[in-house]
Amino acid sequence: MEGFGGLSNSINGLKQAFRNGETRAVDWRKSQLQAVLRFLAENEDRIFEALKQDLGKHPVEAYRDEIGVVKKSAEHSLLHIKQWMAPKKGQLPLLLFPSRAEVLPEPLGTVLIFGSWNFPISLTLDPLIGAISAGNTVVIKPSELAPACSSLLSSTIPLYLDNKAVKIVEGGSDIAQELLQQQWDKIFFTGSPRVGRIVMSAAAKHLTPVTLELGGKCPVILDSYSGSDLKSAVKRIAGGKWGPCAGQACIGIDYLLVQQKLAPVLIESLKRCIKRFYGDNVQNLQSICRIVNKNHFDRICNLLEEPGVAASIVYGGSLDRENLMIEPTILLDPPLDAQIMTEEIFGPLLPIITLDKIEESIDFINARPKPLAIYAFTNDKKLKDRILQETSSGSVTFNDTIIQFICDALPFGGVGQSGFGRYHGKYSFDTFSHEKGVLHRSFFPELEPRYPPWNDFKLEFIRLAYNFDYVGLLLHLLGLRRLFIPNRAR
Question: Which stretches of 86-226 are DSSP H helices?
Answer without folding.
Answer: 122-133, 147-156, 173-181, 193-205
